[in-house]
Structure prediction request, 565 residues.
Amino acid sequence: MACAPSPPEVQFQSEQGGLTVSSDAWVGQVSVFDEGGRPLARLTAPPGAQQLYVPLPAVPGSRVRVRVDGVDQWWAVPIVGPVDVSIEAPMGQGRAAPPDGGELQITRVGQGDMDVAMVFTARAPTQIQVRWNDEVHDVRLTATGDRQVLVWALSDQPVHVDVRGPGTQIAFVLRPVQQSLEEARADLQLVRVDLPTDAAGERDLARPEHRIVLPAGWWRSILRRSGLGYRPRDDQAPWSWRTVVLANQGPADQNLMVRISVVDEAGDVASAFRTRMRGVGEDEVRALVRVPRGQQVSVAMPLFIDGAGVPNTTRYFQRVAVYSLGLDEPLHLIELPLDVQRGSSWASAGMLVALAASALGWALLLLRTRSWTREIRTTDLVAIALFGSVSFVLGTALQVVGLGFSALLGPFSPLVIGLADDTLRACLLGTLVILVPQRGVLALATTVGFLMRGLTLGSFHPVDLLYLGSAVFWLEGWAAMAGLTGKRSWRDQSVTRLWVRLSVGLGGANLCAMASGLVISVVFYRLYFADWYVALILALPGFAYVSIGCILAVGFARGLRRVEL
Prediction:
């Protein structure tokens, strides 16, 4: 036995040239039919939208059938006059239809001034008379689409507004509700300030929080001179967005202005963060916002940076001020530290080293693969292919298992999966190099695994090619330094010496390869790693797990050698 979900609650509101459909759930598809069943309009709302405007070619006074999410409702097209009347109270806070015969309450904080605007838009040429208490104004609209605006200063007394003209008659009361500055401050909560975000206010997870990382000066210079990279000038596109989250716990709506500036340690406005939209420099970014009672609102505001004018040694702070309209004293004023950094010199140097290592690794493969295959016996080549294939199979299986751990542990999953992946891979490579201690053995086995992974999973991304080249270079280089690919006599040493030699050769190579991979990920994928996380990755999966695999490799290889002999 089950209960069907209740149908959504739908409301209609007349708009110029159509109607707005509002629902407490996703609006979905809206279809409109006349009384004879002839379709007049059909639109689908964007995903998640709870409101949709539908242009409606219907005769005023007629009835139409509106189908929302499969449910039909009848709606009478209102008879409209020759003029649309809307009100902005206070001015700049969005227009609304005046409540004919009703009362519109406006919260007025402190003794600040507040302007109210009435907007008149002609559907046809007409002339109307507007009465604001004892003031009388004549509004003449000479053509369809003509618009006029009347602005009044609102005091602490109610105002009777009367609009009359041919086919138009609206009367309502505009009532100010007085609220003290202390009450407004207690009702409004500045929840948090997020940086960086996107223009919709969603947190940008690809960048560190409250930290600005600018590219190194030499990198900006290379891109500018070579034309390899393009980005709009800083006065045309923001570096990022920051979002101020406000919550109104009071009984009345609050109309606010949010102002954000960036200051230095002395409290002076930092010139590198001034806005330069349309060529006009401003010390701060401003935004008007209405926070309805009992609701939370996010305000996304752009952040502009002149990257070339940011000193490296100065500390900065974001000064966030929230004002009630018409007041000079802020409801809330906070300063948040803003960490500004240039591109890491370590990351830049590491990227150059990784590129050089990858280039040398590919040079080894291209120049030496043919001679390696000639020097190594056929039986040993079969062993290399076998170990490379086994490494691919185990790595692929652990990669599938790792997806589940990644969902649970996030960035800490390599610490768990690496215990099996890096340990088994080191065990296979260590066993192989003990059985066949020749130059090119590790490079060929690694390349076999890469080719099988690429052919099976389609992993031939340019970044993967960088990984392969650097892995080949570090493996062959460290193996030569540790004496793994020279004389064969070292294989007869004690278990402890074999383990130490393998740990130095394979562990050092894996440590450098993993460091290269982290640097490549930082540069190409815009990832950010904390220092302690990098140290943990390099210490455990980078070296410790490989050292454990070398212990297993020594025992496994000695057993295979006895069988071989």
Remarks:
- The two ends are 73 Å apart (CA to CA).
